[in-house]
Specification:
Radius of gyration: 37 Å
Structural class: alpha+beta
Helix content: 40-55%
Shape: extended
Number of helices: 39
C-alpha cells in the first residue's frame, strides 16, 4: 500500500514538473546542448571583426526587439560557421557547434514559446556571457544613427575647405583645411559669401602656419576651385526606447534633442552630455540674429520643431547593417545598429514646415513568432541551388592559353551561300497582328500542357521524374518542355520586331514583350477558380515552369533599358552589353560561354534559361532569314542587316557544341543533359519544332486570311486560348474580325454548325452505348483526343456561330470533357 502511494506521489511530481518545464509552456528552460550552442553563437558574434571581442557589439534584446530578430536571422537560424579568426584559437571550442542551427534544435524540443519571455531569457544569457567576457563593463545596446550636417545653412561642425584643381575628369585634392572653433566663430560672424567670410577670417587671424594656408587658398582661387564642405555629425540614440511612444520619426528626434539639451542645462555631467547641444549653443551665440530666442522657445515648447527633412523621404527609411558590412567596413562603429538612409537627409531649422509623408511615420512591427525563422531565406536558397554546389565546382574563366589552343584562324567568319528556296516551305504570314499571335501562342502552350498532363504518356514519364526528383531540383517537367516554351516565345518576339521594323504594328506594343505577356498570363492562372485545370497541381507546375523560363528572352533579344527595334534578332546588339562581341568574330562563341559561366558558377537557375534563349535566338535568325529571303524579298532587303546570316549561325552552333565537349566545360553539358534533351544542337529537330511551334494557320481559313485582318470595320471576339483554357483572359488584347466577311461566310458557318452538331450527337450516342456494353475506357480516350485538338475549331465556331446558338453547344462540349476528366480522378 505504501509502495503504491509512493509511486502515485512520484508520478504527480513528475507530471507537475512536465507542466512547468515541459513542451506546453516555455518557462526559461534550456538544456545543456541548447545553452552551449547559444554561447557558441555569442562567441562567433562578439568576434565579428577580430580575435579580440568588442564590448560595443552588445545587442539589447529587451529594449529593442529588432536587435533580437537581427541576431536570430543572421546567427541563430542559420548553420553556425567558425570564422577564420577563431579556428586556431584554443580558448574557444566551437567544433561541437559547427553547422548546427539553434532555432531548429530549440523548436524540436519546445512548442512555440512566448517571444517576450524568450527575449528576456536570451538577453539574460547574453548578459552572463558579457560579464564573463568583459568583467564589470556596463553593457550598452546598439544605437540608431542620424547623420546631420547643417543648421539653417550653417555647418554644425567647423567647415572643411577643399582646394581642387579645375579640369575635366576626377578632381585631384590639392589641399584640405578644417577650421578650428575660434576660426569658425569669426567665419560665422562675417557677412557676404563664403569666400568673403574666408577673406575676413584671414585678416583677423594671427600670423602663423594656418594663416599661410588660408593665404594660399585665397591666392589660388582663380586657378582652382574652392569647396566648402560641412562635416557630418552623427546623432546616436536608442531609437526604439526613445521613440516607442512617438511614431513620427522627426518629432521623436525633436523630443530627444529637447530632453537632452534641457537636462544638460541643469547638470554638468560630462559623460551624459550630448555634443550636439554644445555645437548648437556655439553656433547660436556666434550668429548675430534672433536664433537664440527661437532655440529657447524650442526647448520650452513641445509644438516647436527643429528637425526638417531635406528631400522627400523614400523607403526603406533605415539601413540595417548586416554582419558582412561590419566585417568589410571598419569605418562603421560596432555600437551602431542602423542608420538613416542616404536618400533620407535631415537638417536643423526653425523656419521650415514638415511636409506630409507616410515615411515619416514609423509603424511599429508586431512581435514575430520564432517558427517563422525555422526556414529562413538562407535555408531555402541553399536547398534550391544545392544541386549546383554538389555536382559542379567553379569553372575558370576563358584564358588566353585556351584561345590560342583552340582558335586556329583569327579571321572573321565568312558568310556562305544564300538559302536554297527549294527546301524552304512557306510558313510565315507577316500580315497577322501581333495580338493574335500572342493569343495563339498562349493557346498552344495550353494545348501542350493538356497533352502532357492528361494523356497516358505522362503517367509513364512521371515515374522516371519521381526517381530523380530528389537529386535534381530542375528535373520536374517533361524534357524538351522548357525548350518548347522559350522557342515559342522567341519566335513571337521576333515576329513582333519584324512588324515593328516594317511599320505594320503600333510602336507601343514593342515594350509589351510577348514573352512577358506569356509570363504574366501563365503566372496568373493559379488564381482562377471553378475549372479543373487550375486546381490540378501538375498543370500549375508546368504553367509556372514556362512562366519563369520565357521571362529571360527579352534580355537576349533587346538591349537593356532601350526598347527599340534596332536590336532586331541580332546577338551583336542584343548581347553587346553582356559579352561585347560580334557574331562574326572568332571570339564570339567564347563570349557566350563566358557569359553562361557567370551564372553556372554562381549556381543560378538563370543559366538554363539564358542558354536556351541564346540558342533560340540563333535558330529564329535562320527561320526568319530564310522565310523572308525566299517569299518576301522586298521586305528581306529592308531587314537583312538586322539578322545574322544562316551560315554564320551554323558555325556558331557548331562551335558551341565543340566547346561544350571540351573537358573543361563538360560539367555544363552534363548538367544540361540531365535537365533537358541534347536535341538543341540538332538543327533538323529544332527547326521543325520552330516551324510548327506556333500554330498551323492553314487548317483554319478564317484565322489565316490576311484580308480579314486588314479590314477596318471590326467586332471584338475572345482569343482561342480563353476557349481552350477557360480562363479570364483579361490581360489579353482582343482579336478582331470584320463584319462583312462574317456575313459572306454565314452559309458555310451554318453548314459547319450542322456537321459539328451531328458529329457530337454521334459521339454522345457512341459514348452511352459503350457505357452499357462495358467498353468505357476506349471511347473516353477517343472522345478526349478529339476534344483536346479542337481549339482552332472552337475559335471558328465562336466567330461564325451566333452567341445564343454557340453557348449551348460549347457547354455540352465542356461538360463531356469534365466528365471524362473527373472519371479518371485527375
Amino acid at each position: 500500500m505504501h509502495t503504491k502511494l509512493l509511486v502515485i506521489l512520484v508520478l504527480i511530481c513528475h507530471i507537475s514538473t512536465l507542466l512547468i518545464n515541459g513542451r506546453e509552456h516555455f518557462s526559461e528552460f534550456l538544456d545543456k546542448n541548447l545553452k552551449q550552442l547559444l554561447e557558441c553563437n555569442f562567441t562567433v558574434y562578439y568576434h565579428i571583426r577580430d580575435k579580440t571581442p568588442d564590448p560595443n557589439a552588445f545587442l539589447d534584446f529587451v529594449e529593442d526587439p529588432e536587435q533580437f530578430y537581427w541576431f536570430v536571422k543572421y546567427y541563430l537560424s542559420v548553420p553556425l560557421q567558425i570564422p577564420n579568426t577563431l579556428k586556431k584559437k584554443i580558448t574557444y571550442d566551437l567544433k561541437v557547434c559547427e553547422k548546427r542551427v539553434w532555432v531548429q534544435e530549440f523548436l524540436n524540443k519546445y512548442i512555440e514559446p512566448d517571444v517576450k519571455i524568450l527575449m528576456k531569457h536570451v538577453d539574460k544569457e547574453q548578459r552572463l556571457y558579457f560579464l564573463k567576457l568583459f568583467g564589470n563593463i556596463k553593457p550598452v545596446g546598439k544605437y540608431t544613427s542620424f547623420p546631420l550636417k547643417e543648421f539653417n545653412g550653417y555647418c554644425i561642425l567647423p567647415t572643411i575647405i577643399n582646394l581642387n584643381s579645375k579640369g575635366f575628369g576626377k578632381k585631384r585634392n590639392i589641399l584640405t583645411f578644417q577650421l578650428n572653433k575660434d576660426e569658425y566663430k569669426i567665419y560665422l560672424n562675417s557677412d557676404g559669401s563664403e569666400v568673403t567670410a574666408l577673406k575676413n577670417l584671414y585678416f583677423k587671424m594671427p600670423d602663423g602656419d594656418r594663416k599661410n594656408i588660408i593665404k594660399d587658398i585665397l591666392e589660388n582661387n582663380k586657378s582652382h576651385s574652392i569647396d566648402f564642405i560641412c562635416p557630418t555629425y552623427y546623432l546616436h540614440f536608442h531609437y526604439y526606447k526613445e521613440c516607442h511612444d512617438t511614431p513620427h520619426i522627426l518629432h521623436c528626434i525633436d523630443n530627444f534633442i529637447r530632453k537632452s539639451c534641457t537636462q544638460q542645462n541643469k547638470q554638468s555631467d560630462q559623460q551624459t552630455r550630448l555634443p550636439l547641444c554644445d555645437h548648437l549653443s556655439f553656433i547660436l551665440n556666434s550668429l548675430n540674429n534672433d536664433y537664440i530666442q527661437l532655440y529657447e522657445k524650442f526647448l520650452m515648447d513641445e509644438n516647436t520643431h527643429i528637425t526638417t527633412p531635406k528631400p522627400v523621404w523614400h523607403s526603406p527609411v533605415f539601413i540595417v547593417y548586416k554582419p558582412k558590412t561590419y566585417i568589410s567596413n571598419f569605418d562603421i562603429p560596432l555600437n551602431v545598429f542602423q542608420i538613416l538612409s542616404e536618400k533620407n537627409e535631415i537638417f536643423l531649422s526653425f523656419t521650415n514646415f514638415l511636409p506630409d509623408n507616410p515615411n515619416y511615420i514609423d509603424k511599429k512591427k508586431s512581435l514575430v513568432s520564432l517558427s517563422s525563422y525555422a526556414s529562413t531565406n538562407y535555408d531555402k536558397l541553399n536547398f534550391i541551388w544545392s544541386i549546383f554546389k554538389r555536382t559542379s565546382k567553379a569553372i575558370e574563366s576563358v584564358s588566353m592559353e585556351e584561345l590560342t589552343t583552340y582558335i586556329k584562324n583569327y579571321d572573321f567568319k565568312k558568310k556562305g551561300k544564300e538559302p536554297n528556296c527549294k527546301h524552304v516551305k512557306k510558313s510565315l504570314n507577316i500580315n497577322l497582328e501581333v495580338d493574335f499571335v500572342k493569343a495563339a501562342a498562349a493557346d498552344k502552350i495550353c494545348k501542350t500542357i493538356e497533352q502532357i498532363i492528361l494523356q497516358k504518356k505522362h503517367g509513364e514519364y512521371k515515374a522516371r521524374i519521381f526517381s530523380q526528383k530528389k537529386k535534381f531540383a530542375f528535373n520536374d517537367v517533361h524534357k524538351g518542355y522548357r525548350v518548347f516554351c522559350i522557342l515559342l516565345a522567341t519566335k513571337v518576339e521576333g515576329y513582333n520586331i519584324i512588324r515593328q521594323l516594317l511599320n505594320l504594328e503600333n510602336i507601343l506594343s514593342l515594350t509589351r514583350y510577348t514573352s512577358l505577356y506569356l509570363h504574366k498570363y501563365l503566372g496568373t492562372i493559379s488564381s482562377l477558380k471553378r475549372k479543373f485545370m487550375y486546381q490540378h497541381m501538375e498543370i500549375l507546375k508546368y504553367a509556372r515552369s514556362c512562366e519563369s523560363a520565357v521571362v529571360h528572352v527579352p534580355a537576349v533579344l533587346y538591349r537593356r533599358s532601350l526598347y527599340v527595334p534596332e536590336s532586331f534578332l541580332s546577338l551583336y546588339l542584343g548581347l553587346s552589353n553582356l559579352v561585347s562581341s560580334n557574331p562574326g568574330s572568332p571570339f564570339f562563341d567564347y563570349a557566350i560561354i563566358e557569359f553562361l559561366l557567370g551564372y553556372f558558377n554562381k549556381g543560378s537557375g538563370k543559366f538554363m534559361s539564358y542558354f536556351i534563349s541564346i540558342m533560340s535566338v540563333l535558330y529564329i535568325n535562320i527561320y526568319y532569314y530564310e522565310q523572308l529571303f525566299c517569299y518576301d524579298y522586298e521586305n528581306f532587303m529592308r531587314l537583312k542587316n538586322k539578322m545574322i546570316h544562316p551560315s554564320l549561325v551554323e558555325q556558331i552552333i557548331q562551335n558551341l557544341k565543340f566547346l561544350l565537349n571540351i573537358p573543361k566545360y563538360t560539367p555544363i553539358k552534363k548538367l544540361y543533359n540531365q535537365i533537358e534533351d541534347d536535341t538543341i544542337f540538332d538543327r533538323e529537330k529544332e527547326y521543325m519544332l520552330l516551324v510548327l511551334s506556333l500554330f498551323s494557320l492553314s487548317t483554319c481559313e478564317l484565322c489565316s486570311s490576311s484580308e480579314l485582318v486588314q479590314e477596318k470595320k471590326t467586332v471584338p471576339i475572345l482569343p482561342s486560348s480563353e476557349l481552350f483554357c477557360n480562363s479570364s483572359f483579361s490581360s489579353a488584347s482582343l482579336l478582331v474580325v470584320p463584319i462583312p466577311k462574317l456575313i459572306s461566310k454565314l452559309p458555310f458557318c451554318f453548314f459547319f454548325f450542322f456537321i459539328l452538331s451531328s458529329f457530337f450527337l454521334l459521339l454522345l450516342c457512341l459514348f452511352l452505348s459503350c457505357f452499357v456494353a462495358g467498353n468505357k475506357t476506349g471511347v473516353r480516350e477517343v472522345l478526349f483526343s478529339v476534344l483536346c485538338r479542337g481549339s482552332c475549331m472552337r475559335l471558328y465556331m465562336h466567330v461564325c456561330v451566333p452567341k445564343d446558338k454557340f453557348l449551348p453547344l460549347y457547354n455540352l462540349h465542356w461538360t463531356l470533357f469534365e466528365n471524362r476528366v473527373n472519371t479518371h480522378h485527375i
